Amino acid sequence: MSDDTRSPIDPAATHAALLAAGAELFAEHGYAATRVRDIAARAGANLAAISYHFGGKQELYMAVLEHEAARMIAQHPLSQPDHADDPVAQLRDVIGGLLGRVLADDERGLIQRLLLREMFSPSEALPLLVERVQKPQFALVLSAVTAVAGPHVPPDRLRLAGLSLVAQCLFYLSARPVVERIVPDVVSAGGRTRLVEHLTDYNLAALQALRAAHAEPGDA
Q1: Among positive and negative, which fits the CA dihedral 40, 45, 47, 52?
Q2: pLDDT tens digit string along 180-216?
Q3: Cβ contacts of 158-167, under 8 Å, gap ≥ 24
Q4: Which residues, in sequence order, are CB contacts of 70 under 8 Å at separation 6+?
Q5: What is the pTM of this model?
Q6: Which residues does 173 contact at the CB level (< 8 Å), separation at least 6?
Q7: Does domain 11-64 have CATH number 1.10.10.10?
Q8: CATH fold of 76-213, please?
Q9: Domain boundaries, the chain
């Protein structure tokens, strides 16, 4: 009888290790250039473990995106329950949450790098990412925009206003290395607070102008 002293395999630990290894390698090399055997090797797992836990490379990639996105959303939510009756506070929460996500001081920066790769080189997982993550988050943005602009602004204008708000925040993700060299204090801790207030005031003025342009007789 052989004396097998190997530790028993912990399925939960293997699952977590594959997610972590996948996140690192997908962020480093992109979806297409990442090999499943390299993920398994970094995770210290058998190659077959990827199929067992996730079904395949694409499913693992989607699981990585959802896992990292969920962590980011939990750390930087776009809404606060106690601001439900304060449209300006809702707008500030959305902007603060978005900027918190793109400027997060995560030493790995995994979700930021993963999202940048998806924006500039979309994979087959993008439609699922949009449906499961991006659309629900954009609904929160749209809710805050509508609360300020009012019910009479056409839906297409509200959607464009929401996209403009998101784009202003995403600028600091894609252009952060340049911003740090031109206006370095903007992405510092104190600078971020001022940036949230600036973007809140900027978008508030635009949304109030939309509200006034589409006001109906008798509106306050």
Answers
A1: negative
A2: 899 988 888 778 899 999 999 999 999 999 999 998 8
A3: 161/203, 161/206, 161/207, 161/210, 162/138, 164/203, 164/206, 165/94, 165/95, 165/98, 165/141, 165/199, 165/203, 166/98, 166/138, 166/141
A4: none
A5: 0.86
A6: 102, 103, 112, 115, 116
A7: no
A8: Tetracycline Repressor; domain 2 (1.10.357)
A9: 11-64, 76-213
- Find all residues with CB under 8 Å of 159, minimum gap 6, and list them: 142
Q: How far is CA 218 from CA 147, 215, in A?
A: 18, 8
Q: Which residues contact 63 (CB under 8 A, 6 or more apart)?
A: 19, 22, 54
Q: Running DSSP on this structure, what letter comes out for residue 132?
A: I
pLDDT tens readout for residues 19-56 = 999 999 999 999 999 999 999 999 999 999 999 999 99
